[in-house]
Amino acid sequence: MEMSEMRLNPIVVGEVIAAYRLRKGVTQEVLSGLADIGRTHLSAIERGGRKPTLETLYRISLALDVKMSDIVLDIERSLGKPL
Q1: Coil, strand, or helix at residue 78?
Q2: What is the pTM of this model?
Q3: Element (H or E) spanning 59, and its range?
Q4: Hey, how many other C-beta atoms are within 10 angstroms of the C-beta on 11?
Q5: Cα dihedral sign for 32, 38, 43, 48?
Q6: Among 20, 17, 3, which residue's Cα sits nearest to residue 48?
Q7: For the chain, how far is it from start to end, CA to CA, in angstroms?
Q8: What are the backbone angles phi and psi of residue 66, rounded to the nearest 5°?
């Protein structure tokens, strides 16, 4: 794979975060409040319109009560990259 092909797909990132949120059974409004980020920001992340910073991903993981590394591993699996 060439360096120019190495891109993180923001849609996959958003889908993984949304799946965690839905498994937790919380709305975007609730999760954004727990993570102390704006609901529209979270919505944009889940739609793939924005990529979360590490800080934002960490806040989301804490709010979901999961390890940030678990979310990252699921993103990698969804991208089909070997671990």
Answers
A1: helix
A2: 0.89
A3: helix 54-64
A4: 12
A5: negative
A6: 17
A7: 15
A8: -130, 160
List C-alpha distances in Å: 78 to 11, 12, 41, 68, 74: 10, 7, 22, 15, 6
Give the model confidence (pLDDT) of 34-44 as tens digits. Answer: 999 999 999 99
Task: Give per-residue pLDDT as tens, 12-27.
Answer: 999 999 999 999 999 9
Buried b (16+ CB within 10 A) or exposed e, 21-31: beeeebebeeb
Residue pair 51/13 in contact (Cβ under 8 Å)? The answer is yes
Q: In the 8-state DSSP scheme, what is residue 5?
A: G
Alpha-carbon distance of 7 to 21, in angstroms, equals 24
- The length of the chain in residues reads 83
Tokens of 19: 């799946």
| Tokens, residue 49 | 């319109």
